[in-house]
Specification:
three-stranded antiparallel beta sheet, globular, single chain, five-stranded mixed beta sheet, alpha/beta, 277 residues, 11 helices
């Protein structure tokens, strides 16, 4: 009789434990942790207009910050910037040091290590900062022997330029600012970045000119997040991106950031490709 009771008790405990597993798994997901801890951690690195750290106040601003603030507000949590680099972003996500890294392109290599929402964050195009008297109009014009191209290490641009360039010399830098500094000091002849970043850099530098070499192709960027069993966070981020893009929010944020830097956004291609002319 005692043995039967113990057996029934054990079976009941095991049954209750099995019913609790889904709830525990959900609590352990990224979305569950964010809601519980009231914090959304995003990666940040020196790269205008996406991320900019004021040297006086140490406050981060930029398009990526503004997008993060909107997502955090919709979750009712606080946005927490986590400093990283483009080259280290994937490892930082895998190590659970942050929840999202905005403006991270979903390349095949990255998809093997981290996850991406289905909906894109927004679009941009590969641009080039060249000398004011340059006659280059295409990527073929830039890919000449003796031309030194500066690009940011670990970015999708690094991958693209490496695949495209056959004759020019590629110089890699740890961040966008270092690449621009190399152009200013004439250590490189061309800097390749996505057009929104180049526009901001040019406005400060006042050297050379920004071109969109042909062929011009819209590039969809996204945000990286950890791979995990629960799709809840990925699906939620995808829904947010789709809604914000449909409402033209990326363009509004980008235009607002340009104005904050005393740059007139009129006529400048934004981040919604359907509005490009």
């Amino acid at each position: 009789m005692n043995t039967t009771r113990r057996t029934l008790l054990a079976a009941t405990v095991l049954g209750l434990a099995s019913l609790a597993v889904p709830a525990l798994a959900e609590d352990a997901s990224t979305l569950g942790r964010i809601k519980q801890q009231k914090q959304l951690r995003i990666g940040v690195t020196s790269a205008e207009p996406w991320f900019f750290k004021d040297p006086m106040t140490e406050k981060w601003t930029g398009v990526g910050i503004a997008m993060g603030e909107k997502l955090a507000a919709n979750l009712g949590v606080t946005l927490v910037p986590v400093e990283t680099t483009w080259a280290n972003a994937v490892a930082a996500l895998q190590a659970d040091q942050m929840d999202l890294m905005f403006v991270l392109d979903p390349t095949d290599e990255r998809k093997k290590a981290i996850d991406f929402p289905e909906a894109p964050l927004f679009y941009y195009a590969m641009g080039a900062l060249v000398a004011a008297d340059s006659t280059a109009k295409s990527w073929e014009d830039i890919d000449k022997s003796g031309t030194r191209i500066g690009v940011t290490l670990g970015t999708s641009l690094d991958k693209n330029i490496t695949a495209m360039v056959k004759n020019a010399e590629i110089n890699r830098f740890s961040n966008n600012d270092e690449a621009i500094a190399a152009f200013a000091s004439k250590r490189v002849d061309v800097v390749v970045q996505f057009h929104p970043a180049l526009i901001v850099q040019y406005s400060r530098l006042k050297l050379g000119k920004v071109i969109l070499p042909e062929p011009v192709n819209p590039v969809a960027t996204s945000a990286g997040l950890r791979k995990e069993a629960s799709p809840a966070f990925r699906d939620w981020v995808s829904e947010q991106f789709a809604a914000l893009y449909k409402d033209g929010v990326p363009d509004q944020i980008f235009a607002g950031y340009l104005k904050s830097k005393n740059i007139d956004p009129t006529g400048i291609p934004g981040l919604v490709k359907e509005a490009w002319k």
